[in-house]
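[SOLVED] Need 3D model of a two-part complex

Original post:
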Amino acid sequence: MTTKLKEVDVLLVGLGWTGGILAKELTEAGHQVVALERGAMRSTENDFAVPRIRDDLRYASRNDLMQNPAKDTLTIRNNPSQLALPMRRLGSFLPGEGVGGAGVHWNGVTWRWTDNELKVRSLYEERYGKNYIPADMTIQDWGVTYAELEPYYEKFERTAAVSGKAGNLRGVIQKGGNPFEGPRANEYPLPALESSHASDLFNTAATNLGHNPFPCPTANASRAYTNPDGSKFGACQYCGFCERFGCEANAKGSPHITVIPIAMKNPKFELRTHAWVTKVLKDSTGKRVTGVTYTNVLNGEEFEQPARLVVLCAYAINNVHLMLLSGIGKPYDPVAQTGVIGKNYCYQTGASATLFFDGNYFNPFMGTGGLNARADDFHSNWNFDRSKYGYVGGATLGAGMTNGRPIAYRPVPAGTPRWGKAWKDATAKWYNSAMNINASGSVMANRYNYYDLDPTYRNAFGLPMMRMTFDYKENEHKMGRHIAGVINEIAKSMNPTSLNPASARSGSWSVVPYQSTHNTGGTIMGTNPGNSAVNKYLQSWDCHNLFIMGASVFPHNAAYNPTGPVGALAYRAADTLKNVYLKNPGPLVSA
Amino acid sequence: MKIMNKFGLILAGSLFGTSGAFAADAAHGKKLFEECVACHSLERGVNGVGPSLQGMFERKAGDVAEYRYSPAMKRSGIAWSAQTLDAYLAYPQNNIKGNRMPYSGMPEARDRADLIEYLRTATK
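Solution:
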């Protein structure tokens, strides 16, 4: 039996970064907001205090802060001719769960995606010609520009305590920053982090080869900080327990210490944890949503929560799943190339080399999520001529120290036995004398990389699991070969005692080893209902009182981490909702 | 111990109101307190990641009710004074081994003196 509750103004599905931003902004504007979060409450004092948070086994190996695949998971395959099977253990990516979402256990790396991404199709066609983009590469312009997002990028950086060094202030290139970033109105809210020894060695080598390294912008507070909302940050202690952990020192930009507690103090806001949304409901016309159904996962009780406005703020994958389960928008069909829900699923790729320096000490236990020097010469640098290599997109390069955790971090030279005395000797010898140079690479949308509902497998609620069909295409392989060569050139110039060189990946993508949690697409934004699920304000083309936040709206994936535009787009949507939509509800862009 | 001796002199200066190069600067201490405030409040009963500091100079380490201290802090037997706090803030993990405060320390004796000067009144 489903209990029908009283209608609310605004219903948020999920309470991480985007849900937190909307909860704060909309309650402050006087609207009544209810957030339904499928996971538990979380706070630094109760959940992330020392020493319990520094548990490599519990949090990193056993993914204690992540979704439990026994309740719901995806089925996975590489191409439409294969049979998809459920991912029964988390591997390649780690979706977060609980109050604060993945904003609790991210590294903090915060980029401003440039017009290279936001206007990807028109810029590449203009420079390289229409035939340069392969026929099955379904990339498109996003419908927003860097100039429109700039103030919202800044707003998010200030909320999240981003440390960095500007490379382009109002069009003037700044020494020490990223010369290829979009023009910034202001400096970063906090100065860059300390540099690690690995970053220093990389900086010198990369600069000598003509590249332009700079400190990675990241929401690890380089010093104590109070953000514009009054949220207090401690200074990063470089403890090395960032990614997959909550910050013990309140030094990482996280929604559970910023926007969420502000919303929680507002009587207009209500949070219900352990509330798993199973469907978004539509009215008889199909043009409006009327609320959601959800299950209290602690006791199985089912509720209908009517709402005047519904905003999907769950993890990217779960937003798409909910749209497919709710039958809102036409599901994407890769053969007929019709429909949009599930379209343009993208991921990331990469390459890395490990360098061993006898007698050189890197102290890997001193690190933080974004403690990196990076170079953007083969990514946001539009002057880099891709036609020599024949690909679209690019990769950032860098080196630093993000952690030296006892289980996770065991660098040994290639050829070392995988166990026994020789392995033990090597791991002891090289733990403190190794560093890594890595590339993070973009993945362009492809006709055959997509999501739909699995015909066979069902989750704990009896609902069809979502099926992911994904593999790297020739575009990514071309980029991987180029960028592995660049890494190896830099690595060799550093003259290490021994080198595990970078190699381009060649086989199919596998869901088993961890790779990246930057899953994008599925409910993409765009310029018209034929090519996208939501408009430039993240409003559903089908139901005007449904909005979708997060990286599921990205039409493709860059080499950059996604949280910068996720935060900026959420702040922009919050402004649109407060100032335009909620005053006069209706479609914001005419179809 | 060198730092301690130096600090003893600084403290004496501030306690007896001697003005001069080493007088502790509470205004600067208030600014330095920004490093603490993400975890410690000055209000009675408001505990965050760390315990409230209200009334700390009348207390022993580890005795704020409702706050879960590390066994190391509870066992330390320290009564907070300008001197014991100075030693703790200089290098917390060395001073009370196994305590849970995730803070690497304030290395400058002058900074610690200023912070303690601020806390002497702010925690009342």
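Edit: Confidence is low (pLDDT under 50) at residues 1-20 of chain B.
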